[in-house]
Each structure stands twice: as structure tokens, then as C-alpha cells.
């Protein structure tokens, strides 16, 4: 399957081995939003029996990467997406399956226009991590950039 035929989630899973290590599941992947699930796996639990903070960070960062690929995958020939900063807040105890929902925080066309003008645009992606009962267990913001090649 070529990159043109792959969904953004499939592109992330193919290029980032950690996604496969944690068995992350892509439920939705569009240019505006991505939803990724971390199954309940004892091998990735913490000391209180929920998903380890590192696994939840990876889940949220992966969801942010999927929305970035959905929005800017067509720009890979001239720029590489890179995470610049990430900040996470753990709000409630996570248990069982957790899901990360990422949303693009800046209009795609605005980011591409900045790239077209010779800039290195930065843009935020907001992620909410929820338990199966809908409670928000964490919130994360990842600031991404599109670094032009060369």
C-alpha cells in the first residue's frame, strides 16, 4: 500500500514502532481530529493497576501525530512534521481502556500559507484522554512544527 492510499493513522503506525508495541488502535483519523485507543494491557500498567503515565503520554502524542498527518500528510515532500513541546496534566485515575481525542488548534490553510511564505509554522494540537465511563483522565497539548527540507 502506498502512502497515498494509507490513512493518517496507518501512516503513523507504519512509521512509529512504539505505536505497534503498545497495540494502539486508530478509531478515527481526519485532518481535524484523531481518536486513538490504548487497550487495557497489564504489561503497561503502573503501580495502581492503570495504564502507565508513559503509555498515556505515548497514546496522546500518537493521536496528535495522527491529526497532524491527516492535516499535513500532503506536505511531506517539502516539510517534516516535528513535535516541538508537549505538556500533559493527569487529572483522574485512569483504569482499563483509555482513549485519546486530538484536535488541530490552528486552521490548516493558515499553517500551509505560512509554509508557502518560507516560514516554519508552529501549531498546537489539544488532546483529551478519557476512560470508558467518559471521565477525562488527562489533557495534553503538543506544539508541532513543519520543518522545511533542506
Automatic annotation (TrEMBL):
Domain of life per record: Bacteria
CDD domains, A to Z: PaaI_thioesterase
Xref: Pfam families: DUF4442
UniProt-recorded name of the protein: DUF4442 domain-containing protein
Organism: Streptomyces chengmaiensis
The organism's taxonomic lineage, starting at the top: Bacteria, Bacillati, Actinomycetota, Actinomycetes, Kitasatosporales
Amino acid at each position: 500500500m502506498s502512502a497515498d492510499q494509507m490513512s493518517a493513522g496507518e501512516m503513523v503506525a507504519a512509521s512509529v514502532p512504539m505505536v505497534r508495541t503498545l497495540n494502539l488502535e486508530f478509531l478515527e483519523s481526519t485532518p481535524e481530529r484523531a481518536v486513538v485507543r490504548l487497550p487495557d494491557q497489564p504489561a503497561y500498567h503502573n503501580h495502581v493497576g492503570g495504564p502507565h503515565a508513559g503509555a498515556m503520554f505515548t497514546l496522546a502524542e500518537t493521536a496528535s501525530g495522527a491529526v497532524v498527518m491527516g492535516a499535513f500528510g500532503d506536505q511531506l515532500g517539502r516539510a517534516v512534521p516535528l513535535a516541538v513541546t508537549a505538556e500533559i496534566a493527569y487529572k483522574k485515575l485512569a483504569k482499563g481502556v483509555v482513549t485519546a481525542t486530538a484536535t488541530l488548534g490552528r486552521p490548516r490553510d493558515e499553517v500551509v500559507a505560512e509554509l508557502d511564505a518560507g516560514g516554519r509554522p508552529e501549531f498546537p494540537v489539544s488532546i483529551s484522554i478519557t476512560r470508558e465511563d467518559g471521565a477525562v483522565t488527562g489533557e495534553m497539548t503538543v506544539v508541532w512544527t513543519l520543518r522545511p527540507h533542506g
